[in-house]
Amino acid sequence: MVEISTSILSVIKGEESKTFFGLEKAKTDYFHIDVMDGKFVEKNTYNKMLEYASYIKRISNLPLDVHLMVKNVDESIEDFLAFSPNIITFHYEACKNKEEVMKYIKKIKENNCKVGLSIKPETDIEEIYEFLPYIHMCLIMTVEPGKGGQTLLVNMVDKISKLKKYVDENNLEIDIEADGGINLKTADAVKDAGANILVSGTAILIAKDYKTIIDELKK
Ligand code: DX5
Ligand code: ZN
Predict the structure, then answer these.
(1) Which of 115, 124, 195, 204 is most buried per CB count within 10 Å?
(2) CA gap 85, 65 in Å, rounded
(3) Is 0.90 surpassed by the pTM of this model?
(4) In whole numbers, what is the pLDDT of the chain averaged over residues?
(5) Which residues does 130 contact at the CB level (< 8 Å), separation at least 6?
(6) What is the pLDDT of residue 19?
(7) Ligand 1 pocket test: which of 90, 150, 177, 205 has the largest number of ligand atoms within 8 Å of its C-beta?
(8) Is 168 noted as a catalytic residue in this protein?
(9) Relative to the alpha carbon of 145, which ligand is closest?
(10) What pLDDT score does 46 carry?
């Protein structure tokens, strides 16, 4: 059974509390917090995601799945640790070198938080193999990071399969999260490839009934 992490990037202004409560009732497994700084990616959702994370923390016990699409990883880790998230994921491409990747992994763990490492579509999966023994989750971007509502890049399915094969062959205990363009048409392919956590934003938020779509995606 896969888990669903609903991206709250595209929540309609003014409908936040209704949406968050509805997602909780529909039993999303996580709230996926898409943090963008306007530097690593064009959009800036930083303050909005700080606000949402703080609000969700106050009204719900559901875990936060924080996805940092930022250049200043150090500062963002500090900012989002404040909400005791279940996991903080940062981008491999935001790090100057391997030492920096390990530095951020250590910093997040030292604060009793799980660690995720994310890669963009153009980054080869082999580049992060060496970090897999130290992280809890690998987030495979199935769209170019930066906005919701995009179409899943089908060649990313092979990347997920390749990662899953490597993880199994090396007996690694690691979650594989697929993020971007996931809906009822694309979910099966990423699940069959080995993703066990699916991020979905648009497909869930536009649905009449959150529970129906979440249950369908989970199947
Ligand atoms: C894109 C974000 C994704 C995105 C998912 O940069 O990381 O989480 O919001 O939204 P959909 O499901 O609409 O692609
Ligand atoms: Zn995301």
Answers:
(1) 195
(2) 6
(3) yes
(4) 97
(5) 98
(6) 97
(7) 150
(8) no
(9) 1
(10) 98
